[in-house]
Amino acid sequence: MRKRLTDRFLATLKPPPNGRLEVTDDSGAGLVFRMSNDGACSWAVRYSIAGKQKRVTLGRYVQADPKIGMTLASARKKAAEITANAKEGTDLPDKEARQRAEAEQAAKRPQTVESLLRRYVDAYCKQNQRKWLETERMFENHVYPVIGRLPLSDLRRADIVALLDHLQNDKGFTAQVNRVRSNLIAAFNWAIEREYLDANPAAAVKRRKIEKPRNRTLSDAELIAIWKAADKLPYPSGPYLKTLILTGQRRDEVRCMTWDEIRHAALAGCRDGAQAAGGMAWVIPGERNKSKRDHIVPVSGLFENLLADLPRLSDAPTAPVFTSNGQKPYAGTRRLKEIIDRESGVTGWVFHDIRRTVRTNFAILGVSREVAERVLNHATPSLEGTYNTHEYWPEKRDALQRWADRLSMMLEGGSDNVVPLRSGASV
């Protein structure tokens, strides 16, 4: 049916018994009035573009309230606009649909620096970083208070430089300044891949030449004082600190050690199982260490005795070795450091200096650089890692046992020329 539509005429129409009634407005704009058998009324428009016939729904029909639908006048105006654009080669409904989609996508995008960085932490850091909490705290403490509210569209390189100047000059930070810079570069690169940013405002910001690499190594006397201070502390704090000294492994690797990681060396994945048959090993899984690969640490006799004396607060195989409740790893390292400083009289050191001290003692003991680096699980050059697949189990076991022997001798006040009896002859 084709007819010059009026509100009065539309009011006389009755729903069809089934299907749908359609009446085309004879205004020439392709406007179509539709009524379903349930009485629902709506507008559509037919138009042709590039030789193709198209039809699009405009909205529901209302006689008087444009807030809840389209009146006859507004539908006729919109249909005329669509057909006029189509004659000029523009598909107006398609264009408007794209604009709406873009607007919806833009509304979902982070609008400020803080909202972007929070999304980066949630979507990336929590999935890929073992220490994502450090990244989150860094942003919360140092970035959000300064540039967090800044709209992304206004973010410039000068804002990043001003932030780093503030951290360095006003707060007196050193190494932390470059860590903030590195994390911002990584976050903004992640944002570029998702088209939240067009360019990385931190990419051209230069690294600050303010970090002094630590070279603190504990002397024999300092190490003895720290060990003896640990002797006075209960489980888990005292044994945890001794394990750092005995193994030279990273702080969190020791702190999060679980009982199922301690196993007979022949069952630890060593290919040279026959050589390893007599000892114990600590296997640090790849997801829990910096190298992202399983790292096998031979257990010296002194370390084996220490483990044998530890209580087990849970029967679960994956229970933490160092724990206060049998469920979560020991978390009192900050307080522990304060106590050890006070009790030992040794200051100006950090836990990581123990690792450097162990490495230095390997050199004193004549352990080769190649073996020492593998005990500490430092990264090897790519070509060497590809062509040299030897696991160095006997060499690592010997290095750690020699270190345990030297430590025992130091604690007993012996001479470097005396070779003490090894505890735990199985290793």
From TrEMBL:
InterPro entries membership: CB, DNA_brk_join_enz, Integrase-like_cat_sf, Integrase_catalytic, Integrase_DNA-bd_sf, Integrase_DNA_bind_dom, Integrase_recombinase_N, Phage_int_M
Compositionally biased intervals (Basic and acidic residues): 88-107
Residues in Core-binding (CB) domain copies: 115-192
Key words, A-Z: DNA integration, DNA recombination, DNA-binding
Protein name: Tyr recombinase domain-containing protein
Signal sequence region: none
Family to which the UniProt record says this protein belongs: Belongs to the 'phage' integrase family.
Pfam family, one: Phage_integrase
GO molecular function: DNA binding
CDD domains registered for this protein in UniProt: INT_P4_C (cd00801)
Species, as recorded: Thalassospira profundimaris
Start and end residues of each stretch annotated as Disordered: 84-109
Gene Ontology biological-process entries: DNA integration; DNA recombination
Occurrences of domain Tyr recombinase (ranges): 213-401
UniProt KW Lipid biosynthesis keyword: no
